[in-house]
Amino acid sequence: MSSYGSDYLYCCEGICDAYIRYIDLCGLMWARLLGYNEQAAPEITRYTMPAKIFGLPNAGAQAGTQSQYGLAWIMADGMLAQDSNPVCGLFSKLMQTYPQVYGSGRWLDSLGINSLPNGVHAGILLEKVTGQVAIQLWNEGEKLARVTLCPDAQAWGYAMVTQAINAETGKALNHTSDGWEITVPGGSVAAVMLTLQ
Fold first, then answer.
1. pTM, entire model
2. Which of 45, 73, 124, 194 could pair with 49 as two cysteines, CB 3.0-4.6 Å apart?
3. For 67-125, how does the pLDDT look when each residue is reduced to its tens digit (9 = 90+)?
4. Cβ-proximal residues to 119 (8 Å cutoff; 6+ apart), any chain
5. Which of 192, 190, 183 is nearest to 67 (CA)?
6. Around 133, how many Cα atoms within 13 Å sit in the side-chain half-sphere?
7. Beta strand 132-139 with 120-127: parallel, antiparallel or unpaired?
8. For 98-185, where are the alpha helices, taking DSSP H only?
9. Cα(48)–Cα(179) distance, rounded to whole angstroms?
């Protein structure tokens, strides 16, 4: 790799155990759990090497917990899990409630989210046609996390956020001078739906 300089990254899709020392980033490998090493980075290869990644649990997560699919949740793509994990059912419900956002929205990693409590991760799904953004939150910690969202609408090409609701319940989030507030239980997930102008 060093003979090619620092302007190149090698990506490989599929089973690449024999070639791992030559590869910078691995695409989807069904035999590997999400986050099992630094080179397995589906969040980087999500659009460059498209493949369904959901259904793959996190490395080291306890089976049956919502954290089991935390990384998949924040990357917001269709669930392929073949078990009764509650995250899969919640994601299915959100797809039915917001078909345009979850069906054709573009994943933007955490663009526009400026600060989160330690252990809380976010993924953004932008739907330009409807002017909506889904914020997928995952709290990998054990304690309840109080999250104040102060999203940067300009990062998504809009002037401002006009509404923020709990995507699961449809209830408006409390708004303060600091932003919109939501709580995420320990080891669990939540989703916020924003309306933009």
1. 0.82
2. 45
3. 788 888 888 866 655 667 788 888 889 999 999 999 889 999 999 998 899 999 999 99
4. 139, 140, 141, 145
5. 190
6. 30
7. antiparallel
8. 99-104
9. 34
